[in-house]
Amino acid sequence: MADIFREIDEEMRQENLQRIWKKYNILIIAAVAAILIGTVGYVGWQHYSASQRAAEAERFAAALAVAGQENADQAIRDFAAVAGEAKYGYAALARLEQAGLMAEAGDLPGAIDAYDALAADSAAAQPFRDLAIVLGAYRRLQADDAAGAVTSLSGLAAGSSPWRHLAREITALAAEKQGNRAEARRLLRQLVDDTEAPSGVRARAAEMLQALPE
Length: 214
Description:
Blueprint: H1 2-47, H2 50-68, H3 72-85, H4 88-104, H5 108-119, H6 126-142, H7 146-158, H8 164-177, H9 181-193, H10 199-211
């Protein structure tokens, strides 16, 4: 009888972990978007005249508006057009948005390929390439490819990239999916104790650590 109660308790903890991730994954993407806007502004300021920046910003905003109307197919085409004609920040940002819409529409393989292509594009700024790796790993996790997610994130999670904390968070989730709870707990504890980690990441890590079975 004790074994039955232990199994029920473990299942409840697992459900809590999934609930926590579903609760916070939208916030992760929102935080990423906010940082991206700042990065785009910085890169754009370096490489564009004011008129060029304004024109590309307007086209990008128009594509976002279409996406906000839940017209995914049209938005994907619009972002593809921006990505093909813009340069520097807005081109990379459009590729990220396009890949995200593909994933939300159910085309995870296509989205992962799009992220991988951006990550390998030496013409794109490094912050965008690193973010493409993080988001590609996140989509791999959604596609039940936890091993692929861990492999793709290994360099970022161990390095000094500004995305390293998200990389470690996703790596922890991937480790748990692989049944390696000790590694998942180690990574989450590392995030909780890391004073350089964003407060949102630390809070999520603490909550997931509490929900994760020993």
